[in-house]
Amino acid sequence: WALEGGIDAMLKRLVDPRERARIGREVESPPGGQGLVQRMGWENVMIAYCARRKDAEGRRLSEIAAARGMDPMEAAFELLVDEAGGASMILFQLDEADLRRALVHPRVMIGSDGSALAPYGEMAVGKPHPRSYGTFPRVLGEYAREQRLLPLAHAVHKMTGLPARRLGLRDRGVVRPGAKADLVVFDARHVADRATYEDPHRYPTGVEHVVVNGSLVIKDGEHTGSLPGRVLRFN
């Protein structure tokens, strides 16, 4: 109900003392069960992007609240109002052991909901989740090479052929005559993610060349300026 009517309606509720208090009570004790904050704690909520409050980016809500002498809930509400509802966050709620267990399951595919970013220009904003730069190199370098959770070929298949087949993209995710030429040339000995929560705008190492739809996009680790990518749609 707090979001009913959109962002503007939510902001009006947050500046109304009675409505604000009601929202706070239901965040702390949601009807019907335990809430997200109770399960993970404010120390596991990190602010990723703010248009105005740049001082909040990359900091935990518990830290922001302590610095301002406020309750974390009130600090969150204040931030939402200051940012007109536009702040984004990162939640730390995944157990690494669960991730490792999932990675080796034969039906698990590997993907990312990270954004297309760059460490320069208009795309170099905020403290985004490092997955935007490092998801796939991390699988190859950390989980396949260093931890040896799964063979390198299996890791590659989970990121290419397996999801392509599941989504019905018959000419993607495989290397064969007639298939779309989407290829990545990487150094298996050195490929690694470098993006961190503190410094997320960092490209990985070990990715030498990338071909998209038959066009060379990355050559010797540098972008060529070619833009052959396109959205894949089902008709």
Short overview:
The chain has 2 domains: 7-91, no CATH class; 96-223, no CATH class. The protein is 35% helix and 11% strand. By secondary structure, the chain is an alpha+beta fold.
Helix/strand layout:
Layout: H1 7-15, H2 17-28, H3 36-40, E1 45-49, H4 61-68, H5 72-82, E2 88-91, H6 96-103, H7 131-146, H8 152-159, H9 161-166, E3 183-186, E4 207-212, E5 215-219, E6 222-223
Antiparallel strand pairs: 1-2, 3-4, 4-5, 5-6
Helix pairs in contact: 4-5, 7-8
For the terminal residues, how far apart are their CA atoms?
36 Å
- Helical/strand content category: alpha+beta
Strand order of the largest sheet: 3-4-5-6
Number of helices: 9
Strand content: 5-15%
Tally of extended strands? Answer: 6
**What letter string, H or E per element, gives the SSE order?**
HHHEHHEHHHHEEEE
Textual characterization of the structure:
A four-stranded antiparallel sheet has the order 3-4-5-6, with no helix packed on it. Helix 4 crosses helix 5 and helix 7 runs antiparallel to helix 8. The model has no long low-confidence stretch (mean pLDDT 95). It is elongated, with a radius of gyration of 21 Å. It has two domains: 7-91, no CATH class; 96-223, no CATH class. It contains nine helices and six strands. Helix content is 35%, strand content 11%. By secondary structure, it is α+β, with helices and mostly antiparallel strands.
